[in-house]
Every structure is written in structure tokens, then in C-alpha cells.
């Protein structure tokens, strides 16, 4: 599908959380028509009436002249030129259960999900391609160090749009660029997507260490070693020339590892302080993608056998109920 340059794009955003809300806010800055699907009919009606999301980023005012809300997904997809997936990876299959391949035919699909399909252990883009017969060149990924909370505050932010069709990515990057956000295009869709998954796992490790009262010195070493771990893993799965120091890779890792807005860091911090996984999930009432991702990463790495001591420690803590203090103590000897 070639980009339509003669009329305003119609963009369907799937998801009702903070990142979906932030994406809607960004798109409202530009000449596009937005269709926003939310699972809960009460939320749909509330946004129609009051112009903001009652549950997430509720201070963000939604431009109701540009945004139409839906609770029936196939209806929201009609006539759309672009579809943005902004549902946590663990729930995307359920959210899309009523969608047929013909509903997505000819549309550009953009994943704003930083996770893997649980149990199947595949990237969102590969799942979209396989489940809905969408050509790889019509799939993009949104990446970059960009927390929804700072978008809500209109803090200067940056995004990277990745696709095997870099012209398609560049076209969509223009739709996502506005007065407080810059977006650019690259071709490394797999590297960007795997790094986005891995940085959530690393943020869990940073949070666990912080919850155990390790300081900034240790976290700096942990993050630098993590970047090496990510590079080993990504190069094993998808070897190509890429600069992991770019903002889509290192920048995204840093903001997720250090920011007060990082759900994964917050979740890890609670685990380090002694919370159980279940109690941390209940108290947060938000999804930490890294919790699901590390299980998939651990399964994938059984094939590649990459040395990943930080990821292994996180997996053992979350899924084998290993002591956070003991695992981080063992990890210390392996860091340089």
C-alpha cells in the first residue's frame, strides 16, 4: 500500500491505557482523523461526553472534533488507513479476536507494544504478519525513550519509527511529529522491537536492585552490562549493522531503567522490597510488560544460548521464586 498524500489519513488507535491516550494526544496535533477503540463502553461514553480518559492521563484533553470513540473494533477499523496497536502484549490477542484478515487489508499496521506474544514467544510484528496476512512492508514499530506521562505534559520527546519499508516508516513519522515531539524513520524493525522488549526486563532488574538499597554506582554498572547483554542477544537473533547507542536502543533503555514513570522499574522495586508478584501487580494496577517478556526471552534463549546473567536473575526471581537478595548477590560477581 502506498501512502495516500491527497487526503487526511484515518488512524485507528486500539487500546485505552496511558500510552494509547498519549498517542491520541500526539495525533490530535496533526491533520489526521482518529478513531479510538476502548474495551469498556462506559469509557467510550465518558470520553464522548467529557473529552478525557477517566482512567489514564485524565488531565489530557481530547479534541472531540478529531477523535471518534468506539467499543466495537471492526467498526473502528472501517476505512482506516493506519491502525496503531497499543494494548499490552498479554492482551492483544483477546482484543483482536473479532478482527478478520480482510479488516486489515490494505492498511498500515503500527505496533506501539513493547512486548512479545506470551506462550508463542514471537514479536508483535511477526504475529500480525502471520495471523492477519499483512505484508511485512506494511508493518511499523513505534520505539524510543518516550513516557506517556511526559507526552501528557508536552515535554520534548523523540520517537523512532521502524519498518522494512523505510519510506512507509518516514511517512508515518511525519504523522507522529508535532511541536513537542520529533520522530524519524529507520529500517531495523527487529532490532528495535527486541531492544524494546529487553529494556523492560533490564528495568525490572534495576528496580529490584533499588528495592534492595543498591545505589547509583551499582545501577550504572548494571545498565552498562545490560547494554552488552542486549547486544549479544539481538545480534544472535538478527545479525546486522546497527548502532545500539542510538536513542531507539540506548535512549529507551536509559529512560526505562531510571525514570520515575517506568512501570517496570516500579514493579521491580516492589519485588526487591519484598512484595510478591501478585501483590505488586494488584497494587500497581498497571501492566509491567517485562514480567511477561522475561518468560518469553528465557524460552527463546534456550535456542541461542546467549550469555544473559541479568535476564537469568530476573527470570529466577519472578518465575522460580528465588530470593532477590541472593540473585543480585550472585549477579554482582559477574558484572564488570
From TrEMBL:
Reaction catalysis annotation: sn-glycerol 3-phosphate + NAD(+) = dihydroxyacetone phosphate + NADH + H(+); sn-glycerol 3-phosphate + NADP(+) = dihydroxyacetone phosphate + NADPH + H(+)
Main location: cytoplasm
Domain Glycerol-3-phosphate dehydrogenase NAD-dependent N-terminal: 11-165
Annotated GO MF terms: glycerol-3-phosphate dehydrogenase [NAD(P)+] activity; NAD binding
SUPFAM superfamilies on file: 6-phosphogluconate dehydrogenase C-terminal domain-like, NAD(P)-binding Rossmann-fold domains
Active site, renumbered: 199
Record keywords, A-Z: Cytoplasm, Lipid biosynthesis, Lipid metabolism, NAD, NADP, Nucleotide-binding, Oxidoreductase, Phospholipid biosynthesis, Phospholipid metabolism
UniProt-listed InterPro entries: 6-PGluconate_DH-like_C_sf, 6PGD_dom2, G3P_DH_NAD-dep, G3P_DH_NAD-dep_C, G3P_DH_NAD-dep_N, NAD(P)-bd_dom_sf
Record bears the keyword NADP: yes
GO cellular component: cytosol
Entry-linked Gene3D superfamilies: N-(1-d-carboxylethyl)-l-norvaline Dehydrogenase, domain 2 (1.10.1040.10), NAD(P)-binding Rossmann-like Domain (3.40.50.720)
Domain Glycerol-3-phosphate dehydrogenase NAD-dependent C-terminal positions: 188-326
Binding site for substrate: 114, 263-264
Function as written in the Swiss-Prot or TrEMBL entry: Catalyzes the reduction of the glycolytic intermediate dihydroxyacetone phosphate (DHAP) to sn-glycerol 3-phosphate (G3P), the key precursor for phospholipid synthesis.
Family according to the record: Belongs to the NAD-dependent glycerol-3-phosphate dehydrogenase family.
HAMAP family (UniProt xref): NAD_Glyc3P_dehydrog
Name of the protein in its database record: Glycerol-3-phosphate dehydrogenase [NAD(P)+]
Source organism of the structure: Xanthocytophaga agilis
